[in-house]
Amino acid sequence: MGSLIVLLFFLFLVQEFTNIKCTSLDPEFAHVEHCYLKSVNRTYKYLSIRYLNLLQKPVSRIKVNGATFKRYNGYKPSLYNFTVDGCKFIKNPKSNPVAHYIYRLFKDFSNVNHTCPFNDDPIVEKLPISYINKQVTSVLPVPSGDYLFSSHWYFYDIKRITINVYLTIF
Fold first, then answer.
1. What is the pLDDT of residues 49-69, one digit of tens each?
2. Which of the four, 84, 88, 120, 160, has the lowest number of CB atoms within 10 Å?
3. Read out DSSP for 27-78?
4. What's the structural domain count of the chain?
């Protein structure tokens, strides 16, 4: 859930998703169900992440490291690199105003709406790019270019999942 917060922090400036890759590093703990971009037509595109089936439930300790990279000659670190304690944030979203703002951007498309422990598999389903663009216009002056948002999910202090979202800002 923390990863979703960090993910959407960067996605609100997105004009186009170009790729998404989700990887389970511990198939005994969780596996990727589906993780994709879908273009229904030229004006309707969305992102869906039913990114993990938790095989050892309930989960009560989640940390997520998120970082942004800009493509120059390869992807170079850019803007943010931070760690979020997912359980603490969901318990008190206003404790981090930026994360709270981002959470509000995707919560209507997600089942991440309660505190730990998590007994269900977190999802973001059919999050339209147009919805993100409508909610936020010119909040941060991020230069145009190709970006990568990379997140690493830690359950019980062990890295179990990575999610990489590639995007273009015009």
1. 875 667 777 888 988 887 889
2. 120
3. TTTEE--EEEEEESSSS-EEEEEE--EESS--B--EEEEEEEEEEESEEEEE
4. 1
**Domain range enclosing 106:** 2-169
Q: Confidence band (pLDDT; 50, 70, 90) for 70? A: very high
- What one-letter code names the amino acid at 97? P
Strand order in the sheet with 145-155: 16-24, 158-169, 145-155, 62-72, 74-85
Q: What is the pLDDT of residues 11-22, one digit of tens each?
A: 544 557 788 898
CATH number at residue 76: 2.70.220
Instruction: Encode 50-86: b = buried (16+ Cβ within 10 Å), e = exposed.
Output: bbbebeeeebeebbbbbbbbbeeeebeebeeeeebbb
Q: What is the pTM of this model?
A: 0.80
User: Which amino acid would we find at residue 8?
Assistant: L
